[in-house]
Amino acid sequence: MKKAIFPLLLVLAAISTAFAPVGSGYTVGDTATDFNLKNVDGTMVSLAGIKDAKGYIVVFTCNHCPYAKAYEDRIIELHKKYAPLGYPVVAINPNDKDVQPADSFDKMVERANMKSYPFAYLYDETQEIARTYGATRTPHVYLLDAKRVVRYIGAIDDNSEEPSEVKEKYLESAIDALRAGKDVSVKETKAIGCSIKWKKA
Predict the structure, then answer these.
(1) CA 184 to CA 9: how far, in whole Å?
(2) Rg of the chain on CA atoms, in Å
(3) Is the N-terminal amide bond of 84 cis, ω within 30° of 0?
(4) Structural domains of the chain ordered from first start
(5) Angle between helices 2-16 and 66-82 in degrees, nearest 10
(6) Which of 131, 145, 156, 185 could serve as a FRET partner for 90 with CA atoms 20 to 30 Å apart?
(7) Is residue 154 predicted with pLDDT exceeding 50?
(8) 10 Å Cβ neighbour count for 104?
(9) Cα 87 to chain center, whole Å?
(10) pTM of structure
(11) Beta bridge partners of residue 145, listed in sequence order
């Protein structure tokens, strides 16, 4: 049943892309803007405010999307693995609560507490950051170096359905390359997930 549902979600996600705002966002090599967004603990979080960071794993994600849920535990493990090495996860929910009530700030707090998120989970209420970055999906990853230069954009890995069947860990490979002072070999992949729920005009 699970395998039957995901292809349907892919089709629906592809259709909904037509309604996304126009704007290309960042490409690899661009310097990303910082932000100051509200965390689920009520504090305001910026990239500059994260001490000792050697880079940032910025992930646009949300509460309700089946793809976001499928990657949730993997995102938690990424933070646990790489935050001590200077590459914390910074998760951002860009969805409009009026379009998708399950992605309201209160629901974010509930989800973060339920799953014991070890990372910041921020609310992009105006959707300005998602638009600026060019995010279109949940999840959609932007790996930044210490100077906020975008070094990788796209998917976390090559299998959204079965973690045990992942063959290519795109994000981890990119982080490992940065840590080793090497060029990222695969700089961009297609983000697979639900379309961002943009505010209605």
Answers:
(1) 30
(2) 16
(3) no
(4) 2-19+28-195 (3.40.30.10)
(5) 100
(6) 185
(7) yes
(8) 18
(9) 14
(10) 0.89
(11) 55
